[in-house]
Amino acid sequence: KKDRIMVKYILVVTFLLAIFSLCSCKTKQDLLDEKVKQLTEWSNRRTVIQMNSNKYSTYVKSKPRNYSMIVMFTALDPKRGCSVCREANDEFTILANSYRFSPAYTSSLFFAVVDFDEGSEVFQSLGLNSAPAFMHFPPKGKRKGADTYDIQRLGFHADNLAKWMAERTEVVVRIFRPPNYTGTVVLVLLFSLAGGLLYVRRNSLEFFYNKTFWSILSIFIVLAMTSGQMWNHIRGPPYYHRNPQNGAIHYIHGSSQGQLVAETHIIMLIHAAIVGGFILLNEAHQPKVDISKRRIMAIGGLVLVAFFLSLLMSIFRQKYQGYPYSFLLR
């Protein structure tokens, strides 16, 4: 009799556990459906969802989750002094908009942004000491190292972000940028200004044949192109890099695979100083110039070339480890 009672007890307990398990599964599914529904609603209003610490904990960190999240961590308040956060935010928005209106759009991938002033606890939990930063949160499993975007090497251009997103989520998106007529308007204004100037000076166009004018213009274009301005335009790197460990600011990228905007400006100034030194050396050779001025120009030109060429080689050694040559500076 006792055995029968025990069997009945076990059957009842098993039945109750089965019912509880079914109810629990249903609750999780309902919770997941509610989360996806809410995220979809927010995404329809704005492609990049604004999140604070609570929303991040609920929709990104907590389970259940059958969707991926691409999250940008930033500090858009001007008081924070993040000079590149606004530009990175614009590129991230372009990526999110391109995905929203692409054939690849589904409710399995969402874009979000967490601002430091609204989610400082999130920054602390992830060990973030600088902004902007981009991270991918997969639907299952733990994040891997590649789920953190290498902004220092790749910049924050929307096309590079799209390639990284495709590697992490297998969602391929073609970037569509809104039409920008600023360049066209500026070009029209410049041509109009140049045409008006030529019309006003139509009776005296000697300046048009001035060798000095064309020399300065040519040197400026060469300096701009050789300093890496086109690379900046394509890759969109940050202006400087802040070390997350000690907060130190670096204006020279430590790797040969990348560069900073400030770095290109520094290189451009160094190249300009070297060019100026060679110009002084060339002018010092002219016999029409007074001998004392020629001596000063020669010494000044030699100092400029020697010092700034040494500085350029020193920076090159810093970026390309193992480069064997140096001059004056190491």
TrEMBL record:
GO biological process, one term: protein N-linked glycosylation via asparagine
GO cellular component, as recorded: oligosaccharyltransferase complex
Presence of keyword Disulfide bond: yes
UniProt subcellular location: Endoplasmic reticulum membrane
Entry keyword Metal-binding: no
Pathway(s) served: Protein modification
Annotated transmembrane regions: 181-200, 212-231, 266-284, 296-316
Task of the protein: Subunit of the oligosaccharyl transferase (OST) complex that catalyzes the initial transfer of a defined glycan (Glc(3)Man(9)GlcNAc(2) in eukaryotes) from the lipid carrier dolichol-pyrophosphate to an asparagine residue within an Asn-X-Ser/Thr consensus motif in nascent polypeptide chains, the first step in protein N-glycosylation. N-glycosylation occurs cotranslationally and the complex associates with the Sec61 complex at the channel-forming translocon complex that mediates protein translocation across the endoplasmic reticulum (ER). All subunits are required for a maximal enzyme activity.
Protein name in UniProt: Tumor suppressor candidate 3
Record organism: Ciona intestinalis (Transparent sea squirt)
Gene name tied to this protein: LOC100184901
